[in-house]
Amino acid sequence: MAERDELEARCDALEETVAHHQQTIEELNETITAQWREIDALKRHFARLGERLQEVEEASGAGAVPSEKPPHY
């Protein structure tokens, strides 16, 4: 009977461990999903800023200015 009790205790411990792992996986998945949404929003924002910068450069004629370092560098 002691062997059966030991097996039941081991099974209970394994079930508890699996439950904790499942919870951790769900939390990690939620975190990754939130980060993906934030990265996607930042990419879109960055693209819009790049477009606006290009429009400003074209409107001001800054696109014609060379982007070389001055000779004193």
UniProtKB/TrEMBL annotation:
Which is one Pfam family of this protein?
Answer: SlyX
Task: Locate the coiled-coil region(s) and give their ranges.
Answer: 4-59
Keywords assigned: Coiled coil
Q: Note the InterPro entries from the entry.
A: SlyX (IPR007236)
Task: Report the superkingdom from the record.
Answer: Bacteria
Q: Could you say which protein family the record assigns here?
A: Belongs to the SlyX family.
Annotated protein name in UniProt = Protein SlyX homolog
User: Which species does the entry assign this protein to?
Assistant: Lutibaculum baratangense AMV1
Top-level taxonomy: Bacteria, Pseudomonadati, Pseudomonadota, Alphaproteobacteria, Hyphomicrobiales
Q: Name the gene for this chain.
A: slyX
